[in-house]
Write a structure and sequence with these properties.
The protein is α/β, with parallel strands linked by helices. It has helices at about 15-25, 85-100, 115-125, 130-140, 145-165, 195, 200-220, 240-255, 275-280, 295-300, 310-320, 340-350, 375-380, 385-395, 425-435, 465-470, 475, 480-490, and strands spanning about 5-10, 30-35, 45-55, 55-65, 70-75, 170-175, 180, 190, 225-230, 260-265, 285-295, 325-335, 355-360, 400-405, 415-420, 440, 445-450, 455-460. Helix 8 links the parallel strand 9 (about 225-230) and strand 10 (about 260-265).
Length: about 500
């Protein structure tokens, strides 16, 4: 069922985006065929979503799955109901029918957005108490008590950092979109070293040139750099010399004297060497990530990793030896063939290393990932049990949830959460989720997020593929004019 194209008939509305988001809570890897063709009501499976103006205002949902008996729900709404209310109540009918027909219920209820914590923060800032916020969100979105508590706790831990944001400053993201191999679950635009090695010298030259151009804009507008984040891909896929060239370019073109955080995603253990770590540290990066995802060697082989769990532990210990005192580790709950016991073993062993932060992702089956071909099989695993264990375990050890985001097609409709010891929260991660500070992106597949003084946000996307980024570089640089205009407006507007 979940691998088939399901007809969705929209009658009297155009609520495609949100209806699809609700349907995907139940059919993660399905495709949907949206139309207003009532002939499709003769199909073995269909979803009918209607808004009816006939002696009143009504929303109606009717669903049939695999030839079963269609189930219908209808609700009357006030004639004065706004469009967002009509959309929400129609989605609620669809949600309730699908809960009954599939026997499953999303722990986040009807909350389909990627930033649940942002909703909590908005209500805190309106002066509502925890009980009032809980009542409002659980009634409106039907999210579980457990997920409300997690979102609220994350919001409380985030607020002091959000209050310290310098909105006149910007953060810098540097993309190195290469990996030794492509993991089966990966949906990022990253490229294996085998296929991209010939492009790397040209790519690095172009990236350094872009950094010079951005640096000039930042200097001319008198803009302060707040945080820097090197991501990918796996930035340590390239040589120590290439890392040095890029970090030297950053140092030469930006004032780093007052930055509050400099992060480098070292990433996969099989790419981490003492020489690379020493270069990273020498240029001022103080926070790094070592990302094993799991310490189970059998699971690592299944997802296409070449390193072992022991390699990950050695990479972490090497980073400590060199002097890094702010290390994050990434884990993924719900990887193919991973058992709940195996995940617990991984988390316990990682916790024994006492990293300053641990990020627990949940497996997401994206269409562009190799894993999508067997997507349905991967949606039935003990991810929920793994995530529940991580919350209890990490919080008992003093790790606090400080940022969270959700994605479509995530196993069990779960979430990704960053946990950190007090004072070791990644400010960049919070800024990118809260969308209150401009982030300048450099490199292939990066994006610049311009946050104007009136809170309007505009995104400027770089080309996704290295050859495109290299060959169309001059054309791409024309987009930088808007960055300068935005930074001038930020600079000239008094900050609250």
């Amino acid at each position: 069922m979940t691998d088939n194209k399901i007809p969705v008939i929209l009658d009297g509305n155009s609520f495609k985006y949100e209806i699809e988001a609700v349907c995907k809570l139940f059919f993660h890897t399905a495709r949907f065929d949206f139309s207003n063709d009532f002939e499709k009501l003769n199909s073995d499976s269909y979803i009918l979503a209607s808004v009816i103006w006939d002696n009143g205002l009504f929303v109606l949902a009717e669903i049939r799955l695999n030839g079963d008996v269609p189930e219908k729900k209808i609700m009357a709404l006030p004639l004065t109901a706004k469009e967002n209310v009509i959309e929400h109540e129609l989605c609620r009918l669809i949600y309730h029918i699908l809960c009954k027909k599939t026997g499953t219920k999303s722990p986040w209820g009807l909350m389909t957005g990627i930033r649940p914590v942002k909703k909590v923060i908005e209500l805190i800032e309106q002066g509502l108490s925890k009980d009032e916020i809980e009542k409002k969100l659980t009634e409106h979105f039907e999210l579980s008590q457990k997920k409300f508590n997690l979102a609220y706790e994350t919001a409380v831990n985030q607020l002091p950092i959000l209050e310290s944001i310098d909105k006149s400053a910007v953060s810098l993201y540097v993309s190195i979109p290469f990996c030794p191999t492509r993991c089966s679950y990966c949906s990022f635009v990253s490229h294996s070293m085998d296929s991209a090695i010939k492009l790397i010298p040209q790519y690095i030259n172009a990236l350094c040139r872009e950094l010079e151009i951005i640096g000039k804009i930042v200097k001319e507008t008198g803009t302060k750099i707040d945080t820097i984040y090197f991501g990918g891909g796996t930035p340590t896929s390239i040589s120590a010399g290439d890392i040095q060239k890029i970090m030297q370019t950053v140092e030469n073109n930006f004032d780093l004297d007052n930055i509050r955080e400099y992060s480098f995603e070292a990433g996969r253990p099989d790419t981490i060497t003492e020489e690379k770590l020493c270069v990273i540290k020498s240029f001022g990066a103080s926070r790094i990530s070592v990302n094993p995802q799991t310490l189970n060697d059998d699971v690592l082989r299944v997802i296409g990793r070449k390193h072992s769990g022991e390699d990950a532990i050695k990479a972490f210990e090497l980073a400590r030896k060199i002097g890094f005192d702010n290390i994050n580790t990434d884990l993924i709950a719900g990887l193919p063939t991973e058992s709940a016991e195996s995940f617990r073993n991984t988390l316990d062993r990682i916790a024994e290393l006492t990293p300053e932060s641990i990020t627990v992702h949940t497996l997401t089956v994206k269409r562009s990932a190799d894993l999508f071909e067997t997507g349905c099989k991967n949606m039935s695993n003990p991810a929920s049990e793994m995530v529940d264990y991580s919350i209890e375990k990490l919080m008992s050890l003093g790790y606090l949830p400080y940022y969270m985001y959700r994605q479509k097609n995530t196993v069990d409709n779960l979430e990704n959460v960053g946990y950190a010891k007090k004072g070791y929260e990644s400010q960049y991660n919070i800024f990118i989720m809260d969308e209150t500070q401009t982030i300048l992106g450099a490199g292939c597949a990066s994006s610049t997020k311009l946050v104007y003084p009136d809170r309007k946000i505009n995104r400027i996307h770089n080309y996704k593929f290295p050859y495109e980024y290299i060959n169309r570089f001059e054309q791409l640089m024309q987009k930088k004019k808007e960055i300068a205009e935005c930074l001038k407006k930020i600079k000239s507007t008094p900050q609250k």
